[in-house]
Amino acid sequence: MWKSAIFLIFTLLIVPFISFKFDNSLTELQLQTLEILLWTYGIAAALTFIISTITDNYSQVDKFWSIIPVPYVWIVAHFASYEPRIVLMAVLVTIWVIRLTYNFGRRGGYSWKFWTGEEDYRWAILRAKPEFQAKWKWITFNLLFISAYQMGLILLFTLQALKAMDSTIPFGVFDYILAALLVGFVIMEFIADGQQYKYQEEKYRQRNTGKLDKFHEVGFTHTGLWAFMAHPNYAAEQSVWIVFYFFSVVATGNWINWSITGCLLLVILFERSAVFSEEETTKKYPLYKRYLKEVGRFVPYKGKFKL
Fold first, then answer.
1. Among candidates 138, 276, 137, 108, which has minimal Cα distance to 204?
2. How far is CA 123 from CA 37, 59, 226, in A?
3. pTM, whole model, 2 decimals?
4. Among the residues of 128-259, which ranges form H helices?
5. pLDDT digit string, tens, across residues 263-302
Protein backbone atom coordinates (compact mmCIF):
# COMPACT_ATOMS: atom_id res chain seq x y z
CA MET A 1 0.00 0.00 0.00
CA TRP A 2 2.92 2.32 0.70
CA LYS A 3 4.06 1.97 -2.93
CA SER A 4 0.58 2.78 -4.23
CA ALA A 5 0.28 5.77 -1.90
CA ILE A 6 3.69 7.15 -2.91
CA PHE A 7 2.83 6.70 -6.59
CA LEU A 8 -0.49 8.51 -6.14
CA ILE A 9 1.10 11.37 -4.22
CA PHE A 10 3.78 11.67 -6.91
CA THR A 11 1.14 11.87 -9.64
CA LEU A 12 -0.72 14.51 -7.63
CA LEU A 13 2.40 16.69 -7.78
CA ILE A 14 3.79 15.98 -11.24
CA VAL A 15 0.62 15.73 -13.38
CA PRO A 16 -0.67 19.23 -12.50
CA PHE A 17 2.82 20.66 -13.10
CA ILE A 18 3.01 19.17 -16.60
CA SER A 19 -0.60 20.10 -17.35
CA PHE A 20 -0.17 23.74 -16.33
CA LYS A 21 3.12 23.98 -18.24
CA PHE A 22 1.51 23.14 -21.58
CA ASP A 23 -1.81 24.96 -21.17
CA ASN A 24 -2.91 28.57 -21.02
CA SER A 25 -1.95 30.50 -17.91
CA LEU A 26 -4.71 31.23 -15.42
CA THR A 27 -6.34 34.63 -15.65
CA GLU A 28 -6.29 37.01 -12.70
CA LEU A 29 -9.90 36.12 -11.90
CA GLN A 30 -9.12 32.39 -12.02
CA LEU A 31 -6.12 32.93 -9.72
CA GLN A 32 -8.30 34.82 -7.22
CA THR A 33 -10.86 32.00 -7.33
CA LEU A 34 -8.17 29.34 -6.96
CA GLU A 35 -6.77 31.09 -3.90
CA ILE A 36 -10.15 30.82 -2.13
CA LEU A 37 -10.47 27.20 -3.21
CA LEU A 38 -7.02 26.36 -1.83
CA TRP A 39 -7.83 27.99 1.51
CA THR A 40 -11.02 25.91 1.65
CA TYR A 41 -9.05 22.77 0.80
CA GLY A 42 -6.38 23.52 3.41
CA ILE A 43 -8.96 23.96 6.18
CA ALA A 44 -10.83 20.78 5.15
CA ALA A 45 -7.63 18.69 4.94
CA ALA A 46 -6.44 19.98 8.32
CA LEU A 47 -9.79 19.19 9.96
CA THR A 48 -9.76 15.71 8.40
CA PHE A 49 -6.31 14.99 9.82
CA ILE A 50 -6.93 16.47 13.27
CA ILE A 51 -10.37 14.90 13.86
CA SER A 52 -9.34 11.47 12.53
CA THR A 53 -6.18 11.44 14.66
CA ILE A 54 -8.02 12.46 17.85
CA THR A 55 -11.01 10.12 17.37
CA ASP A 56 -9.15 7.20 15.72
CA ASN A 57 -11.92 7.17 13.08
CA TYR A 58 -10.39 7.60 9.62
CA SER A 59 -13.61 7.96 7.64
CA GLN A 60 -13.61 11.73 8.24
CA VAL A 61 -12.33 12.07 4.67
CA ASP A 62 -15.32 10.04 3.44
CA LYS A 63 -17.68 12.51 5.11
CA PHE A 64 -15.98 15.45 3.40
CA TRP A 65 -15.78 13.56 0.09
CA SER A 66 -19.53 13.65 -0.35
CA ILE A 67 -20.05 17.25 0.80
CA ILE A 68 -17.15 19.57 0.00
CA PRO A 69 -17.45 19.51 -3.83
CA VAL A 70 -20.57 21.68 -3.40
CA PRO A 71 -18.77 24.69 -1.90
CA TYR A 72 -15.95 24.28 -4.42
CA VAL A 73 -18.17 24.51 -7.50
CA TRP A 74 -20.45 27.23 -6.11
CA ILE A 75 -17.42 29.34 -5.17
CA VAL A 76 -16.37 29.12 -8.83
CA ALA A 77 -19.93 29.91 -9.96
CA HIS A 78 -19.94 33.01 -7.75
CA PHE A 79 -16.63 34.33 -9.09
CA ALA A 80 -17.85 33.58 -12.63
CA SER A 81 -20.90 35.80 -11.99
CA TYR A 82 -23.17 32.75 -12.28
CA GLU A 83 -22.40 32.11 -15.94
CA PRO A 84 -24.99 29.55 -17.21
CA ARG A 85 -22.55 26.73 -18.04
CA ILE A 86 -20.83 26.94 -14.66
CA VAL A 87 -24.16 27.15 -12.83
CA LEU A 88 -25.24 23.98 -14.65
CA MET A 89 -21.97 22.30 -13.59
CA ALA A 90 -22.56 23.37 -9.99
CA VAL A 91 -26.13 22.04 -10.05
CA LEU A 92 -24.93 18.69 -11.44
CA VAL A 93 -22.27 18.37 -8.74
CA THR A 94 -24.92 19.17 -6.13
CA ILE A 95 -27.10 16.34 -7.50
CA TRP A 96 -24.12 13.98 -7.32
CA VAL A 97 -23.40 15.09 -3.74
CA ILE A 98 -27.00 14.46 -2.63
CA ARG A 99 -26.85 10.89 -3.94
CA LEU A 100 -23.47 10.10 -2.38
CA THR A 101 -24.31 11.72 0.95
CA TYR A 102 -27.59 9.78 1.13
CA ASN A 103 -25.82 6.49 0.43
CA PHE A 104 -23.04 7.17 2.93
CA GLY A 105 -25.55 8.30 5.55
CA ARG A 106 -27.81 5.23 5.34
CA ARG A 107 -24.78 3.02 5.90
CA GLY A 108 -24.13 4.79 9.19
CA GLY A 109 -21.44 7.18 8.00
CA TYR A 110 -22.89 10.19 9.84
CA SER A 111 -23.86 10.79 13.44
CA TRP A 112 -25.15 13.76 15.40
CA LYS A 113 -21.69 13.57 16.97
CA PHE A 114 -20.09 14.54 13.67
CA TRP A 115 -16.71 13.04 14.56
CA THR A 116 -18.19 9.56 15.02
CA GLY A 117 -20.05 7.25 12.63
CA GLU A 118 -19.35 4.05 10.72
CA GLU A 119 -15.72 3.73 9.62
CA ASP A 120 -14.84 2.27 6.20
CA TYR A 121 -13.64 -1.31 6.84
CA ARG A 122 -10.61 -0.77 4.61
CA TRP A 123 -8.95 1.64 7.06
CA ALA A 124 -9.01 -1.00 9.82
CA ILE A 125 -7.51 -3.57 7.45
CA LEU A 126 -4.73 -1.16 6.47
CA ARG A 127 -3.97 -0.22 10.09
CA ALA A 128 -3.54 -3.91 10.92
CA LYS A 129 -0.84 -4.42 8.27
CA PRO A 130 2.75 -4.89 9.57
CA GLU A 131 4.07 -1.80 7.79
CA PHE A 132 1.71 0.42 9.80
CA GLN A 133 2.33 -1.00 13.29
CA ALA A 134 4.64 1.86 14.18
CA LYS A 135 2.30 4.71 15.14
CA TRP A 136 4.34 7.39 13.39
CA LYS A 137 4.01 5.51 10.08
CA TRP A 138 0.22 5.47 10.30
CA ILE A 139 0.11 9.15 11.31
CA THR A 140 2.30 9.99 8.32
CA PHE A 141 0.08 7.92 6.02
CA ASN A 142 -2.99 9.66 7.42
CA LEU A 143 -1.46 13.10 6.91
CA LEU A 144 -0.06 12.60 3.40
CA PHE A 145 -2.49 10.16 1.79
CA ILE A 146 -5.81 10.00 3.64
CA SER A 147 -6.04 13.69 4.47
CA ALA A 148 -3.85 15.71 2.10
CA TYR A 149 -3.99 13.55 -1.05
CA GLN A 150 -7.63 12.51 -1.00
CA MET A 151 -8.87 15.97 -0.08
CA GLY A 152 -6.64 17.41 -2.80
CA LEU A 153 -8.10 14.97 -5.29
CA ILE A 154 -11.62 16.14 -4.47
CA LEU A 155 -10.55 19.69 -5.25
CA LEU A 156 -8.83 18.66 -8.47
CA PHE A 157 -11.77 16.82 -9.96
CA THR A 158 -14.01 19.87 -9.47
CA LEU A 159 -11.55 22.29 -11.10
CA GLN A 160 -13.09 21.69 -14.52
CA ALA A 161 -15.48 24.43 -13.43
CA LEU A 162 -12.52 26.77 -12.93
CA LYS A 163 -11.20 25.89 -16.38
CA ALA A 164 -14.65 26.55 -17.87
CA MET A 165 -14.19 30.19 -16.85
CA ASP A 166 -11.89 30.31 -19.93
CA SER A 167 -15.00 29.79 -22.07
CA THR A 168 -14.71 30.86 -25.70
CA ILE A 169 -17.70 28.80 -26.89
CA PRO A 170 -21.30 29.78 -26.01
CA PHE A 171 -23.48 27.63 -23.76
CA GLY A 172 -25.42 25.24 -25.97
CA VAL A 173 -26.66 21.80 -26.95
CA PHE A 174 -23.45 19.94 -26.07
CA ASP A 175 -23.74 21.17 -22.49
CA TYR A 176 -27.22 19.65 -22.27
CA ILE A 177 -25.96 16.37 -23.73
CA LEU A 178 -23.19 16.19 -21.15
CA ALA A 179 -25.65 17.04 -18.38
CA ALA A 180 -27.94 14.19 -19.49
CA LEU A 181 -25.01 11.74 -19.54
CA LEU A 182 -23.82 12.82 -16.11
CA VAL A 183 -27.29 12.47 -14.57
CA GLY A 184 -27.57 9.05 -16.21
CA PHE A 185 -24.37 7.89 -14.52
CA VAL A 186 -25.56 9.29 -11.18
CA ILE A 187 -28.75 7.24 -11.59
CA MET A 188 -26.63 4.18 -12.38
CA GLU A 189 -24.69 4.74 -9.16
CA PHE A 190 -27.92 5.10 -7.22
CA ILE A 191 -29.22 1.79 -8.61
CA ALA A 192 -25.93 -0.04 -7.96
CA ASP A 193 -25.70 1.32 -4.41
CA GLY A 194 -29.30 0.33 -3.75
CA GLN A 195 -28.75 -3.22 -4.98
CA GLN A 196 -25.66 -3.62 -2.84
CA TYR A 197 -27.26 -2.06 0.23
CA LYS A 198 -30.36 -4.29 -0.02
CA TYR A 199 -28.28 -7.44 -0.47
CA GLN A 200 -25.86 -6.71 2.39
CA GLU A 201 -28.62 -5.65 4.80
CA GLU A 202 -30.53 -8.87 4.20
CA LYS A 203 -27.36 -10.94 4.43
CA TYR A 204 -26.49 -9.56 7.86
CA ARG A 205 -30.10 -9.84 9.01
CA GLN A 206 -30.16 -13.52 8.11
CA ARG A 207 -26.72 -14.09 9.60
CA ASN A 208 -27.91 -12.66 12.90
CA THR A 209 -30.84 -15.10 12.94
CA GLY A 210 -28.49 -18.02 12.27
CA LYS A 211 -30.26 -18.97 9.03
CA LEU A 212 -28.56 -17.93 5.81
CA ASP A 213 -30.19 -18.89 2.49
CA LYS A 214 -28.13 -19.98 -0.53
CA PHE A 215 -28.53 -16.65 -2.32
CA HIS A 216 -27.04 -14.66 0.57
CA GLU A 217 -24.54 -17.35 1.55
CA VAL A 218 -22.59 -16.32 -1.55
CA GLY A 219 -21.58 -13.28 0.52
CA PHE A 220 -21.25 -10.58 -2.14
CA THR A 221 -23.69 -8.73 -4.40
CA HIS A 222 -23.89 -10.64 -7.66
CA THR A 223 -27.23 -9.77 -9.32
CA GLY A 224 -28.60 -6.73 -11.12
CA LEU A 225 -25.80 -4.48 -12.37
CA TRP A 226 -23.39 -6.53 -10.27
CA ALA A 227 -24.03 -9.59 -12.43
CA PHE A 228 -22.24 -7.83 -15.29
CA MET A 229 -19.55 -5.76 -13.53
CA ALA A 230 -17.61 -6.28 -10.33
CA HIS A 231 -17.76 -2.55 -9.55
CA PRO A 232 -20.73 -0.86 -11.29
CA ASN A 233 -20.72 1.87 -8.65
CA TYR A 234 -17.04 2.62 -9.29
CA ALA A 235 -17.60 2.52 -13.06
CA ALA A 236 -20.39 5.08 -12.79
CA GLU A 237 -18.40 7.26 -10.38
CA GLN A 238 -15.42 7.47 -12.69
CA SER A 239 -17.72 8.14 -15.65
CA VAL A 240 -19.36 11.04 -13.80
CA TRP A 241 -16.07 12.88 -13.46
CA ILE A 242 -14.84 12.02 -16.96
CA VAL A 243 -18.07 13.50 -18.35
CA PHE A 244 -17.63 16.49 -16.03
CA TYR A 245 -14.19 17.07 -17.55
CA PHE A 246 -15.75 17.37 -20.99
CA PHE A 247 -17.57 20.51 -19.88
CA SER A 248 -14.14 22.18 -19.92
CA VAL A 249 -13.56 20.75 -23.41
CA VAL A 250 -16.89 22.12 -24.66
CA ALA A 251 -16.14 25.50 -23.03
CA THR A 252 -12.66 25.92 -24.51
CA GLY A 253 -12.59 23.73 -27.62
CA ASN A 254 -9.39 22.07 -26.31
CA TRP A 255 -9.57 18.30 -25.89
CA ILE A 256 -6.64 18.26 -23.47
CA ASN A 257 -6.26 20.88 -20.76
CA TRP A 258 -4.86 21.07 -17.24
CA SER A 259 -8.20 20.23 -15.58
CA ILE A 260 -7.90 16.65 -16.86
CA THR A 261 -5.65 16.01 -13.86
CA GLY A 262 -8.52 15.36 -11.46
CA CYS A 263 -10.39 12.72 -13.45
CA LEU A 264 -7.14 10.95 -14.40
CA LEU A 265 -6.06 10.67 -10.78
CA LEU A 266 -9.56 9.59 -9.76
CA VAL A 267 -9.47 6.74 -12.28
CA ILE A 268 -6.08 5.64 -10.92
CA LEU A 269 -7.32 5.82 -7.32
CA PHE A 270 -10.46 3.80 -8.05
CA GLU A 271 -8.49 1.18 -9.98
CA ARG A 272 -6.18 0.73 -6.96
CA SER A 273 -9.15 0.70 -4.59
CA ALA A 274 -10.89 -1.95 -6.72
CA VAL A 275 -7.81 -4.18 -6.61
CA PHE A 276 -7.60 -3.81 -2.83
CA SER A 277 -11.28 -4.62 -2.25
CA GLU A 278 -11.10 -7.60 -4.62
CA GLU A 279 -8.16 -9.03 -2.72
CA GLU A 280 -9.97 -8.70 0.60
CA THR A 281 -13.30 -10.06 -0.71
CA THR A 282 -11.55 -13.06 -2.28
CA LYS A 283 -10.15 -13.95 1.15
CA LYS A 284 -13.66 -14.03 2.64
CA TYR A 285 -15.71 -15.61 -0.13
CA PRO A 286 -14.25 -18.48 -2.23
CA LEU A 287 -16.77 -17.98 -5.07
CA TYR A 288 -15.60 -14.42 -5.61
CA LYS A 289 -12.52 -15.59 -7.52
CA ARG A 290 -14.72 -17.28 -10.14
CA TYR A 291 -16.98 -14.23 -10.18
CA LEU A 292 -14.04 -11.97 -11.10
CA LYS A 293 -13.16 -14.26 -14.01
CA GLU A 294 -16.69 -14.13 -15.41
CA VAL A 295 -17.44 -10.39 -15.20
CA GLY A 296 -15.58 -7.24 -16.20
CA ARG A 297 -14.16 -4.97 -13.51
CA PHE A 298 -15.65 -1.70 -14.77
CA VAL A 299 -17.01 -2.61 -18.22
CA PRO A 300 -19.60 -5.39 -18.84
CA TYR A 301 -17.71 -7.06 -21.68
CA LYS A 302 -17.41 -10.65 -20.39
CA GLY A 303 -21.05 -11.59 -19.89
CA LYS A 304 -23.39 -12.30 -16.99
CA PHE A 305 -22.43 -14.11 -13.78
CA LYS A 306 -24.54 -17.13 -12.89
CA LEU A 307 -24.34 -19.33 -9.82
1. 108
2. 28, 8, 24
3. 0.87
4. 135-141, 150-156, 160-163, 173-209, 214-217, 232-252
5. 888 888 888 889 889 998 999 998 999 999 999 999 998 8
